[in-house]
Protein backbone atom coordinates (compact mmCIF):
# COMPACT_ATOMS: atom_id res chain seq x y z
CA UNK A 1 0.00 0.00 0.00
CA UNK A 2 2.78 2.40 0.92
CA UNK A 3 4.86 1.63 -2.16
CA UNK A 4 2.03 2.77 -4.43
CA UNK A 5 1.67 6.02 -2.49
CA UNK A 6 5.41 6.64 -2.61
CA UNK A 7 5.46 5.90 -6.34
CA UNK A 8 2.58 8.26 -7.01
CA UNK A 9 4.21 11.04 -4.99
CA UNK A 10 7.40 10.53 -6.99
CA UNK A 11 5.52 10.82 -10.29
CA UNK A 12 3.72 13.95 -9.11
CA UNK A 13 7.00 15.43 -7.90
CA UNK A 14 8.47 14.93 -11.36
CA UNK A 15 5.36 16.59 -12.86
CA UNK A 16 5.71 19.50 -10.45
CA UNK A 17 9.38 20.00 -11.30
CA UNK A 18 8.51 20.49 -14.97
CA UNK A 19 6.02 23.28 -14.27
CA UNK A 20 6.92 26.73 -15.58
CA UNK A 21 6.85 28.54 -12.24
CA UNK A 22 7.12 27.69 -8.55
CA UNK A 23 3.49 28.41 -7.69
CA UNK A 24 2.25 26.05 -10.40
CA UNK A 25 4.72 23.40 -9.23
CA UNK A 26 3.62 23.63 -5.62
CA UNK A 27 -0.05 23.61 -6.62
CA UNK A 28 0.51 20.56 -8.83
CA UNK A 29 2.28 18.70 -6.03
CA UNK A 30 -0.34 19.57 -3.42
CA UNK A 31 -3.49 19.04 -5.50
CA UNK A 32 -2.34 16.05 -7.60
CA UNK A 33 -0.12 14.47 -4.96
CA UNK A 34 -0.44 15.27 -1.29
CA UNK A 35 -4.18 15.81 -1.00
CA UNK A 36 -5.33 12.68 -2.89
CA UNK A 37 -2.69 10.41 -1.35
CA UNK A 38 -3.40 11.56 2.19
CA UNK A 39 -7.15 11.12 1.65
CA UNK A 40 -6.73 7.61 0.23
CA UNK A 41 -4.29 6.59 2.96
CA UNK A 42 -6.69 7.87 5.63
CA UNK A 43 -9.63 5.98 4.12
CA UNK A 44 -7.65 2.76 3.67
CA UNK A 45 -6.31 3.01 7.22
CA UNK A 46 -9.77 3.22 8.81
CA UNK A 47 -10.27 -0.54 9.36
CA UNK A 48 -6.90 -0.81 11.08
CA UNK A 49 -7.62 2.14 13.37
CA UNK A 50 -11.02 0.67 14.23
CA UNK A 51 -9.47 -2.74 14.96
CA UNK A 52 -6.77 -1.23 17.20
CA UNK A 53 -9.35 0.81 19.11
CA UNK A 54 -11.52 -2.28 19.75
CA UNK A 55 -8.48 -4.28 20.90
CA UNK A 56 -7.52 -1.46 23.25
CA UNK A 57 -11.03 -1.30 24.68
CA UNK A 58 -11.07 -5.08 25.13
CA UNK A 59 -7.73 -4.95 26.99
CA UNK A 60 -9.03 -2.16 29.22
CA UNK A 61 -12.23 -4.11 29.98
CA UNK A 62 -10.18 -7.26 30.74
CA UNK A 63 -7.89 -5.28 33.06
CA UNK A 64 -10.92 -3.80 34.83
CA UNK A 65 -12.37 -7.28 35.36
CA UNK A 66 -9.09 -8.66 36.70
CA UNK A 67 -8.33 -5.71 38.98
CA UNK A 68 -9.09 -6.23 42.67
CA UNK A 69 -12.16 -4.35 43.91
CA UNK A 70 -11.44 -0.92 45.31
CA UNK A 71 -11.73 -0.63 49.07
CA UNK A 72 -13.81 2.29 50.32
CA UNK A 73 -11.90 4.75 52.47
CA UNK A 74 -12.73 4.51 56.15
CA UNK A 75 -13.67 7.53 58.18
CA UNK A 76 -11.36 7.85 61.20
CA UNK A 77 -13.83 10.09 63.00
CA UNK A 78 -11.20 12.65 63.83
TrEMBL record:
Q: Where is this region: Disordered?
A: 48-78
Instruction: Report keywords, A-Z.
Output: Membrane, Transmembrane, Transmembrane helix
Any stretches that span the bilayer, and where are they?
22-44
Know the name of this protein?
Transmembrane protein
Amino acid sequence: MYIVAIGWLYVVLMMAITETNVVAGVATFVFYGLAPVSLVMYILGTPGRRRRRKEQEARAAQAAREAPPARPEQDTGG
